Amino acid sequence: MDKNYVELSLKAIGKDEKLRNKFLDFVKEVETEMAYKGSVRDDITRHLVDALFEKKDFVIKSNQAGIKYKFLTGIGSKVAREFLLSTPEVPEYAWEPQTTRLLLFLSEKAKNVIIGGAYFGDQALPIAKQIENNAGVVHAFDLNETQLAVLKENMEFNSLNNIEVVAKGLWNNSTTFLNLSETDDLAFASPSTENNASNTITIDDYLEAKGLPGVDLIMLDIEGSELMVLEGAVNQLKKEKGYPNIVFEIHSSYVDWSNGLNETPIVKLLKSHGYKVYSVRDFQGNYDMQGKAIELILPEETVIDGPPHGFNMLAVKDEAIIEDKIFTMCKNVSPKYILHKDPSMHHHAEGFKK
Fold first, then answer.
1. What 8-state DSSP symbol labels residue 263?
2. How many CA atoms lie within 13 A of 67 on its CB side?
């Protein structure tokens, strides 16, 4: 059968919301029952789901806290796909449940939170909702104009006025022009060789321009640019008081960790300023983790073997933070939760819901 006819047929189903939802339920049933050694979603059903939508299509969906998200569904975004296929249908969070819980824990009393790679607001929206009663502000940076436009719509949907949307890329200087790749949720930035006006800013320069004394939390998910951004935040990192807690992604496609995580430039930078760094165990997706402790691993006890992959890390100066009952420490396991892999290495210590 001609591939185009299959895609056209799936798009016809996708145009009918009722039929589309039934099809998505069928997809989730296939994922549960199919005998397959790998990830059924990543290898098989993702293509069916993506084919339901035209490039400009979108869905509006809420989480359990009642936060409404509009998100584009026709661009092959894993973040969107995972949210769309969430179980339960109305999930606790939109993306990376343990990381989102971590961010909410760290920002509970925050006045200023910086997010690099804000996207459509998958994590910016719940943080902003939580800190609005503190007169707190989320400073949301992204170079993807399409996603920033969606983020602004999501602010309106949720009557949130405490997100400062910044159409700039965070970097280690404020004089560079960054080109953004076209791969949406995996988009990465690279400096332009042409003489374009700057579209970057450092965290230090931004805070100075805004007249802000500091930032309580920094979240970075910017596909390999995390080190450069932190190099532009040294005035914050070196503080003995009022320093930020930091959550950031690290990925072997951009970072050489062959000598261990402690020898990577980003971990060495943070440790040089007195930070303690931990790997955060999580799904790169949407999975029901309600009631599960956030599992942390020391860098030297983190298993990072396998194909190219990434995960989030936490950097704190006050180790008392991780003594809270929301956390538990693990040893010699992977930071990646993967359902079809060895449970002793890739599952939560308490197991997963059936």
1. G
2. 23
* DSSP 8-state code for residue 54: -
| The listed CATH number (3.90.1200.10, 3.40.190.150, 3.40.50.150, 3.40.30.10) that belongs to domain 97-346 | 3.40.50.150
- Which tens digit of pLDDT belongs to each residue from 39-89? 999 999 999 999 999 999 999 999 999 999 999 999 999 999 999 999 999
Q: pLDDT tens for residues 288-320?
A: 999 999 999 999 999 998 877 899 999 999 999
What pTM was computed for the model? 0.95
For residue 178, the model assigns a pLDDT of 87
Spatial contact of 116 and 232, defined as CB atoms under 8 Å apart? no
**Whole-angstrom Cα distance, residue 245 to residue 228?**
17
| Phi, psi (deg, nearest 5) at residue 312 | -95, 150
pLDDT score for 280: 99
Residues 6+ apart with CB under 8 A from 49: 24, 27, 81, 84, 85
Residue pair 85/28 in contact by the 8 Å Cβ criterion: yes
Lowest mean pLDDT among 158-162, 188-192, 282-286: 188-192
Report the alpha-carbon distance of residue 158 to residue 272 in Å, rounded. 40
DSSP letter at 304?
-
Q: Which two tokens stand for residue 59?
A: 């869905």
The structural domains of the chain, with segments of one domain joined by +, span 1-52, 97-346
Rounded to an integer, what distance in angstroms lies between the CA atom of residue 152 and that of residue 305?
A: 39
Q: Give the pLDDT score at 188.
A: 62
- Token look-up 């932190």 returns 230
Taking alpha carbons only, the member of 328, 268, 272 closest to residue 299 is 268
